[in-house]
């Protein structure tokens, strides 16, 4: 698909590590929670942009299995923000034909929050235009362990296990692997995110803090992605 004056290759799936909310707040002498709140605004804009550009899947890292170790007041603020964001955004997402999935160990959340997440997933499950996957209480290693447990519980014969079968036991079953992984706030780490799924993703890291990441920044990332040659382990000659 093309867009604007230059030829853009639109990724089918973009995954994002939304980093830098705390630094954004600190620079303004605001509490960290203010950075997260602004982060929800940025996410709203990026979901809308993905819908406009034609990116089918957007997967964001909202809360890791390690984030429980943050100060109690920040964890509480994040839980309240998730609840508030679902309440405020879900109707609009549904109207825009976006399917939302909360993926991770969602049993770890309060009963109210878990119910709210399940309700949002139920409401939007038949939507087709776009997919927003929100990784919560998520860790790539935890996901792999959970998949192995399910495979054992299902008594899958070891001879039947291949990459396709294994993928179908991950939280992201049925969702194509990300083509592009974006990390904001200039950190050169994967941070336990989608360890299996990003095997061949192109990585784009920007200095921009997540609350400042907007449609223009997204297009910049897609422009750089469009210049990359994806080889999937082959030589340049084999893929042209
Ligand atoms: C990382 O920035 C960001 C998070 C841990 C939270 C991200 C969550 C949101 C933007 C809310 C999304 C909400 C919904 C409902 C999808 P950081 O705090 O690690 O920043 P720092 O590295 O600058 O301290």
Automatic annotation (TrEMBL):
It comes from the Bacteria. Its cofactor is Mg(2+). GO terms for biological process: polyprenol biosynthetic process. GO terms for molecular function: ditrans,polycis-polyprenyl diphosphate synthase [(2E,6E)-farnesyl diphosphate specific] activity; magnesium ion binding. It is an enzyme of class 2 (transferase). The active site is at 19, 67 (proton acceptor). InterPro entries: UPP_synth-like, UPP_synth-like_sf. Pfam families: Prenyltransf. Binds 2 magnesium ions per subunit. Mg(2+) binds at residues 19, 202. Keywords: Magnesium, Metal-binding, Transferase. Substrate binds at residues 20-24, 32, 36, 64-66, 68, 70, 183, 189-191. Its EC number is 2.5.1.-. Belongs to the UPP synthase family. Catalyzes the condensation of isopentenyl diphosphate (IPP) with allylic pyrophosphates generating different type of terpenoids. Homodimer. PANTHER family: DEHYDRODOLICHYL DIPHOSPHATE SYNTHASE 2, DEHYDRODOLICHYL DIPHOSPHATE SYNTHASE FAMILY MEMBER. This is Isoprenyl transferase.
């Amino acid at each position: 698909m093309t867009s604007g004056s230059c030829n853009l290759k639109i990724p089918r799936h973009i995954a994002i590590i939304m980093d830098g909310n705390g630094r954004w707040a600190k620079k303004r002498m605001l509490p960290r929670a203010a950075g997260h709140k602004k982060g929800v605004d940025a996410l709203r804009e990026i979901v809308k942009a993905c819908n406009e550009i034609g990116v089918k899947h957007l997967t964001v890292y909202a809360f890791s299995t390690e984030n429980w170790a943050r100060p109690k007041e920040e964890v509480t603020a994040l839980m309240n923000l998730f609840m508030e964001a679902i309440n405020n955004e879900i109707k609009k997402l549904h109207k825009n034909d976006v399917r939302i999935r909360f993926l991770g160990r969602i049993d770890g959340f309060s009963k109210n929050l878990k119910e709210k997440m399940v309700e949002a997933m139920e409401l939007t499950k038949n939507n087709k235009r776009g997919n927003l996957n929100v990784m919560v209480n998520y860790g790539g290693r935890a996901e792999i362990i959970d998949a192995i447990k399910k495979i054992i519980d299902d008594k899958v014969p070891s001879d039947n296990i291949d990459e396709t079968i294994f993928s179908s036991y991950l939280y992201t079953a049925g969702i194509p692997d990300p083509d592009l992984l974006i990390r904001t706030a200039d950190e050169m780490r994967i941070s336990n995110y989608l360890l299996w799924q990003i095997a061949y993703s192109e990585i784009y890291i920007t200095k921009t803090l997540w609350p400042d990441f907007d449609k223009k920044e997204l297009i910049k990332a897609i422009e750089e992605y469009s210049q990359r040659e994806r080889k999937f382990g082959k030589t340049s000659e084999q893929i042209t």
